[in-house]
Write a sequence for this structure.
């Protein structure tokens, strides 16, 4: 993912005719916090917070708990967040954090202790006007509530604006849970509108987790002419030539079901690779980075590819697919719904307000539609891909040329 992200930055920078010095500065983080957390049990874990760029506002980005968290990954994701907030036009910067461990191997008490000690290490460098972390892989509203509580004890700040993605009772925003998936649907709908492609379509969701499942259910609720025909988890995919019910699949997954065990008339169990090669109108990539690479790019038949994960299409695969006339809606636009609503949550906390879900969703739609419009028009006028256009717009904003 790091190599692809850097390649996309360099490609856009070449289009903008930027010097190599400017490009290198774009890649570098402002600050990197690397430390070790030791629990009272003696267990030790590597922890990180990378603050990439705050030229447009406070650093913003999630905290992930995963055994494979490392500095390279956090650096790349922090840079992507700077580009994402710039691309969608919100006044925030980019950051990312994480702790390298398996959450399933810690007790609830150990998890809380680890979360509090993470804040203890960073509290001088984060806060409502400095750096506003959020949930990411294996973190959630409960973890954010713990971190807010610890930050309040250490700083005296009671605005709740130090973290986003909190529980509703603790200053979280309505609409936040579904925001990333919902934003992806809004982005696709706007793209299709711009291309004059309104009407029936088929779509497949690779990675039916939080983001993918909300994409499916929001799409079916708002666009009944869009037909979900396949969805996958890490082990298998379900397929129906007729249509799948996203809400039913969501319920099945929430009860810890695995798609390899899903049974219903008219449903066929297929592999993840088979899902990627389905002849559908839209392929939604909501799983992991580097899902589509040089090894499988020639199997992809979808006309539109929506990047709901971070970096799911490698640079080489992106160039090949676009050369074949496929349209890829880039991650820094497609999956920006989460950070947009995080920004809206931060605003509500700062102003001591509580907005309705409709108000939040309407504001989200305004940001997403404008971002897609800007990228589409830029791509058309410069005869470049949506990805190159999105990166170009973001970079221009980061270096103060827009």
């Amino acid at each position: 993912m790091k190599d692809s992200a850097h390649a996309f930055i360099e490609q856009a920078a070449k289009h903008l005719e930027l010097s190599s010095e400017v490009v290198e500065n774009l890649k570098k983080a402002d600050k990197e916090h690397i430390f070790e957390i030791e629990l009272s049990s003696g267990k030790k874990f590597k922890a990180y917070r990378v603050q990439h760029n705050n030229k447009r506002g406070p650093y913003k980005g999630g905290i992930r708990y995963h055994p494979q968290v490392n500095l390279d990954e956090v650096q790349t994701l922090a840079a992507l967040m700077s580009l994402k907030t710039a691309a969608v036009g919100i006044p925030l910067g980019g950051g990312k954090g994480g702790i390298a461990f398996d959450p399933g191997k810690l007790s609830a008490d150990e998890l809380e202790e680890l979360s509090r000690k993470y804040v203890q290490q960073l509290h001088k460098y984060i806060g409502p006007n400095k750096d506003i972390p959020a949930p990411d892989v294996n973190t959630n509203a409960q973890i954010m509530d713990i971190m807010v509580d610890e930050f309040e004890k250490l700083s005296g700040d009671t605005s709740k604006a130090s973290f986003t993605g909190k529980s509703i009772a603790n200053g979280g925003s309505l609409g936040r849970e579904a925001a990333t998936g919902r934003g992806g649907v809004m982005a696709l709908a706007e793209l299709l509108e711009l291309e004059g492609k309104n009407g029936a379509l088929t779509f497949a969701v690779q990675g039916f987790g939080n983001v993918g499942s909300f994409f499916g259910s929001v799409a079916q609720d708002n666009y009944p002419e869009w037909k979900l025909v396949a969805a996958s988890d890490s082990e298998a995919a379900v397929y129906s030539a007729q249509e799948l019910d996203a809400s039913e699949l969501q319920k099945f997954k929430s009860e810890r079901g695995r798609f390899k065990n899903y049974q219903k008339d008219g449903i066929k169990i297929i592999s993840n690779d088979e899902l990627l090669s389905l002849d559908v109108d839209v392929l939604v990539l909501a799983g992991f980075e580097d899902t589509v690479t040089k090894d499988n790019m020639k199997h992809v038949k979808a006309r539109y590819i929506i990047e709901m994960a971070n970096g799911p299409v490698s640079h080489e695969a992106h160039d090949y697919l676009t050369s074949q006339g496929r349209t890829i809606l880039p991650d820094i636009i497609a999956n920006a719904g989460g950070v947009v609503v995080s920004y809206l949550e931060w605003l509500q906390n700062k102003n001591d307000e509580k907005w309705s879900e409709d108000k939040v969703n309407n504001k989200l739609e305004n940001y997403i539609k404008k971002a897609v419009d800007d990228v589409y028009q830029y791509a058309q006028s410069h005869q470049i891909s949506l990805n190159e256009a999105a990166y170009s717009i973001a970079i221009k904003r980061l270096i103060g040329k827009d």
